[in-house]
Each structure stands twice: as C-alpha cells, then as structure tokens.
Design brief:
By secondary structure, this protein is mostly beta strands. Helices cover 7% and strands 28% of the residues. It has a 4-stranded antiparallel beta sheet with strand order 3-4-7-6. A two-stranded antiparallel sheet has the order 1-2. The protein is globular and about 55 Å long. The model has no long low-confidence stretch (mean pLDDT 82).
Length: 198
C-alpha cells in the first residue's frame, strides 16, 4: 500500500492465494481482511488474515469482530473438543461452529446438499452440480468447497466454483449456493464435493 502522494509505503508485504492463506478469498467472493487490525499485526503472516464475511469483500468498512471457536464453545455448552461430536450427528463440534448449527441437537445437523441442475452460464445452458450449505456469518473461520473425481485428490479455489446466491437467514447464518465452473460431462464423469473447515 502506498501513501496518497505515492512516495512512501504504508505496508510492504507478500501474500498468497494458497494455504495457509484463506483460499476463500481467492477470486470472485470474499476479500482478505485482517483478523485484528488494531493490534498492528505482521501483514506478511497468513494467520493474521481471514476471508471477509461478505461476498465482494468489505472495502472501506470495518469487519464485525466475529466469534472464535473457544468463545462459541463456552456459550454453546460444548462438552468435547473441536474434533468431537457432542450430539452424535457425524458433524464435528468445529464444523457445527462454522455452520452455525447446534452442537447439542442432532436434529439440527447442517447438510451439504448436492444436486444437478440445468443452468444458463457463460452464454449457454448446461447441467451443473449445485452445492448448497449453511454458514455461520459470525464465525472466525471459513468453509471451503473441495471437489474430487477420485476421492483421493481434492481441489479448491474460487476459480473452481461460482457463487450463485448467499441468502441471509436472519439468525446469524446464511445459506450459500455455488456451482463448479464447468458443467457435468455428457460422458457421465463422477464428481464428489465436500466442505473443509479452517
């Protein structure tokens, strides 16, 4: 960043679009924002950055501070650790945090919904995988879609998916719907989708 007169750098640092940097802020979608900007953090450290809560980023505004996992766990009466599953719904406590679901109610298990839909994209129609999930708008963490054709190699990145909608549910969560950049192959290639939480 350069001062208005173009003479002196305000901050000079290198960042990346690969892990451990937030991959959710790679392309069309959230921007990179500092987790605690008032602490004057080292801008060159990935741990000091996260993805903005709003699609398109939040330029010129202050991000809400959000809630970290430890604070959420304390107020949600979580008994186990982040990798445990208090309500035995196959969703870890940490993923419940990122989804904004209840860790003590199996009936509130957030689902990853995947379907094939006919969509108009890039000037023509095609059959696309459509992936829908719920996210906690206040969580200091991210959910990232990963795609695979063999369940061994998983790929992620904003160049692989396009945001279709993000609907605020009015309860601190949003329902996010994305599609992969490429349509489903006519040859019937198999694709798998999962969410990674970080």
């Amino acid at each position: 960043l350069i001062t208005g007169d173009g003479q002196k750098p305000v901050h000079d640092f290198t960042y990346n679009d690969q892990l451990p940097w937030s991959t959710a802020a790679d392309g069309a979608g959230p921007s990179l924002v500092l987790v605690n900007p008032s602490d004057d953090p080292d801008h060159g450290q990935a741990a000091n950055w996260t993805a903005s809560r709003n699609p398109g980023g939040s330029p010129g505004t202050t991000e809400s501070s959000g809630v970290d996992y430890a604070s959420w766990a304390a107020t949600s009466n979580v008994q186990g650790g982040p990798n445990d599953d208090d309500d035995h719904d196959t969703i870890s406590n940490f993923m419940e945090f990122l989804h904004g679901s209840r860790p003590d109610a199996a009936s509130d298990a957030p689902g990853l919904q995947v379907s094939v839909q006919r969509l108009e994209a890039n000037g023509s129609g095609g059959d696309y995988l459509v992936i829908t999930y719920q996210k906690n708008l206040n969580a200091l963490g991210t959910l990232t879609i990963e795609l695979s054709s063999d369940l061994i190699t998983w790929n992620s990145g904003s160049n692989l998916t396009e945001l279709l909608t993000q609907v605020d549910n009015g309860n601190g969560t949003a329902t996010v719907t994305v599609r992969p950049e490429n349509p489903v192959s006519a040859q019937g290639n198999i694709f798998f989708a999962r969410l990674r939480g970080e």
